[in-house]
Design brief:
Strands 5-4-3-6-7-9-8 form a seven-stranded mixed beta sheet, with helices on both faces. A seven-stranded mixed beta sheet has the order 14-13-12-15-18-20-19, with helices on both faces. It has a two-stranded antiparallel sheet with strand order 1-2. The chain contains ten helices and 20 strands. Strand 1 and strand 2 form a beta hairpin. The protein folds into two domains: 188 residues, Rossmann fold; 185 residues, 3-Layer(aba) Sandwich (Rossmann fold). Helix content is 28%, strand content 29%. The structure holds S-adenosylmethionine.
């Protein structure tokens, strides 16, 4: 797949993040191309705009619009790292780029909003409701997505929260959404709470779980997480990592069993680590100093030989793309970060055959438990 992004007379080299040898996946799609082509006449010779980029996957928009001031608002640490990395590779101006976490407010003085549709419609609703009070009647608001991602309910959300919404014809299976901010819309969207709370009982304790809009397992304990939790080891451990923590259920359950252990929660989603932190505060407020929270790509920032137990319910997609490369990276990182004798406990759908990969990386694996959908696997670092 090409890394050369040629559009509107400019040539960029764009990679996904992390950059992988022989990666077959492109760092942009037809929706990025459509959005930028359509916008070109508006931007030629225009004064510098303050542009709010929403969900810019790997920085294609930030790089192409580097003459303007871009505020890149997303839930993905990886997207923000990708944008920075691609800006650097192309020798572009880093001062024109501001990464903003999904848990923070975008700035007020924006003249244009360019949005790539997120995977979750609830997260889209959260983003629209957060942006709506920042819009004026002059703000240009264009969204883009692949045809299969745009449903009538998607367009209704734009209509309901922002204002009159129309769509373009499809081009290379992508479509644009043009939105006009209707200032008469009641500005009460933010009143809705996007947090969802539920609880589960584990080891004589009720764990209260709060979830922000874009967090996995938002409505209930995930069935994969549940079977892993029921197989947590009881032997003493000092350093535990909840890798791809989501709302932190795995690390929280491990913290119940191991009251002396330190637990690190790691996720690439800003809303995930924010939820995990809130859940630790709600359930273990008296021992907060044994918990840490990191936004990271797998375990990039962790040292060798630093953990006794790594718990993982890996993702099988990156943004809208189904892939096993993140699970693979998580296993390899776990092998590097575990101390000799330390173990990785991982749950996955049976059909994903993770046991083959774990055996290849660790030289050993055993099935700890399974049911008709999931299998819990363990590998030990020799
Ligand atoms: C299947 S969910 C598991 C969430 C939680 N541990 C549970 O069991 O309910 C996978 C999690 O991995 C996170 N993730 C995806 N890619 C990642 C990466 N490269 N590095 C760290 N976390 C990642 C996702 O944001 C998501 O929260």
């Amino acid at each position: 797949m090409s890394s050369k992004f040629c559009l509107n007379g400019s040539k960029l080299t764009l990679f996904r993040y992390p950059k992988l040898e022989g990666d077959k996946l492109q760092a942009w799609n037809a929706a990025d191309e459509y959005l930028l082509t359509e916008l070109a006449p508006t931007l030629v010779g225009a004064d510098r705009h303050n542009i709010l980029l929403v969900n810019d996957s790997f920085g294609a928009l930030a790089c192409a619009l580097n003459d303007h001031h871009c505020f890149s608002w997303s839930d993905s640490y990886i997207s923000q790292q990708a944008s920075l990395s691609n800006l650097k590779i192309n020798g572009l101006n880093l001062d024109h780029f501001n990464g903003i976490k999904s848990t923070e407010m975008p700035p007020e003085n924006i003249s244009m909003v360019l949005m790539k549709l997120p995977k979750s419609s609830l997260f889209l609703e959260y983003q629209l409701a957060t942006i709506q009070p920042l819009l004026s009647s002059q703000t240009i608001f264009n969204a883009a997505g692949m045809v299969k991602e745009i449903h009538s309910t998607t367009l209704k959300l734009f209509e309901k929260i922002i204002g009159p919404t129309t769509t373009s014809l499809a081009r290379k299976k992508a479509r644009l959404i043009y939105v006009k901010a209707d200032l008469a819309h009641k500005r009460n969207n933010r009143i809705k709470s996007f947090e969802k709370n539920w609880a589960f009982d584990f080891y004589n304790k009720t764990l209260h779980i709060s979830n922000l809009a874009n967090v996995f397992g938002r409505n209930q304990l995930d069935a994969g997480a549940e079977i892993l939790i029921n197989n947590l080891p009881r032997e003493e451990v000092k350093q535990i990592i909840d890798l791809g923590c989501g709302n932190g259920v795995l690390g929280l359950a491990a913290a119940c069993l191991h009251p002396q252990a330190n637990v690190s929660f790691v996720d690439e989603s800003f809303m995930a680590t924010a939820s995990a932190k809130k859940n630790v505060l709600n359930n273990f407020s008296d021992t907060m100093n044994r918990f840490q929270f990191f936004n990271d790509n797998c375990l990039d920032g962790f040292s060798k030989n630093s953990a006794d137990l790594i718990l993982c319910n890996p993702p099988f997609h990156q943004q809208q793309t189904i892939t096993d490369h993140i699970a693979w990276q998580m296993m390899q990182d776990a092998h590097r970060v575990l101390k000799p004798g330390g173990r990785l406990l991982l749950v996955g759908n049976r059909h994903l055959n993770y046991h083959v990969k774990m055996k290849r990386i660790f030289g050993n694996q055993r099935v700890v438990d399974s049911n008709k959908n999931f299998v819990v696997l363990e590998s030990r670092r020799s």
